Amino acid sequence: MRIFDPHIHMSSRTTDDYAAMHAAGVRALVEPAFWLGQPRTNVGSFTDYFDSLVGWEPFRASQFGIAHHCTIALNPKEANDPRCAPVLELLPRYLEKDGVVAVGEIGYDSMTAEEDKAFAAQLALAIDHDLPALVHTPHRDKAAGTERSIAVVRESGIAPDRVVLDHLNELTVRMVKESGCWLGFSIYPDTKMDEDRMVAILREYGTEKVLVNSAADWGKSDPLKTRRTGDAMLAAGFTEDDVDLVLWRNPVEFYGQSGRLSLDGEAPEAEFAGNSILRGARK
Amino acid sequence: MNAWLEKALHDVAADATALRTLFPAVGRRVGRGPSATPGWTVDDVARVRLLRAAPGAAAEMPDLYRYGDAAEKRAVLHGLSELDTADIGDAGLELVADALRTNDTRLVTAAMGEYAATHLDAAAYRHGVLKCVFMGIPLAGIAGLARRTDGELRRMLRSFAAERTAAGREVPADLLPLLHEQDA
Description:
The complex is a heterodimer of chains A (about 280) and B (about 180). With about 280 residues, chain A is an alpha/beta fold.
């Protein structure tokens, strides 16, 4: 089973996770820029984080045979902090980097005026930089937030098939399917969505334009949930080709719209800034 | 010429701030293989052409370096030596110092170009050379060695060689001619 995790925050994960993911079949992933748990208080915190997403983290992933790409954005939660919002002016520099395959995560957290502004501005950036967009749907008041997100996407003029709305559930899947956007599902141990509910949604709505991710981060989460979902699909009677479509070809098609996916399995870089992560005498 | 590069050269000539978004895209537009200039890749050459074409590029270079990935940083370092240094003055020294703090051989090599040979003070230049030797960077890539090597640098290099020999390790072959020169 080859797996592309289209949403996982590897900066928060260990090298054991990378090894386990590779063993489970993960060969590629996208790490969206998001909140870090601890709020940031200045623009420099963002740029150092972005530098890591295009520098150190792809290097780390390459040591485990996994292709790493990222998305760059000001996330909705921190869009509300006037000390952070000026990072919007620096995004054009990062949105042209080789490893950046979408603008994201953008969208709503508490649906404030500041979030409206950042969301619309970043959809415009996606159009300017010819990139797809990854839209986070809110944890609270999810159905209303998803509906409003679809309206903002429509108003922006970006083609709906260049947008994924993520963290969907039984109550939001239909409206997103009807919008023409891609459907993202985050499979979590306790919250959001689990693998059996995911299988039921795939039965009802089909496999087209569906992205399944672990969204694993610094919270309780599991980077192998993509594999577990593939196993649950097979157990429920889906074919290996269905699993390959959902867990590999769909994310490749979605992020491939950037023209910047590189999945050739290049040899890992020997060193990053002179540091090897394997920490032992080199032979 | 590559049509993308042609348009990019035109765009930066009209407005140097266009460098901010064109600079990172160069590698995937023109390639990353070796060029006719020894030690430079095709994207290095294209990026330096963009810097040359942009009036007021010197003002953009510090941020191009700050927000650049390793390839962009390397091109800015090359650019310091290639552009009219009257525009840049000592402003490039901070970039050279940053590159010399890294352990990335690509950046350290690019930092020790003609700009560094002209602008670094004696202590910084000596330590730049010593760091190159320590990292196994060929001396042929370092600018200004003939005119800037002094007695103190020769002492440092001999000490380095003695340490290597005592440890039973090899002394880089390209270092030997320098060690045998007589102090003036």
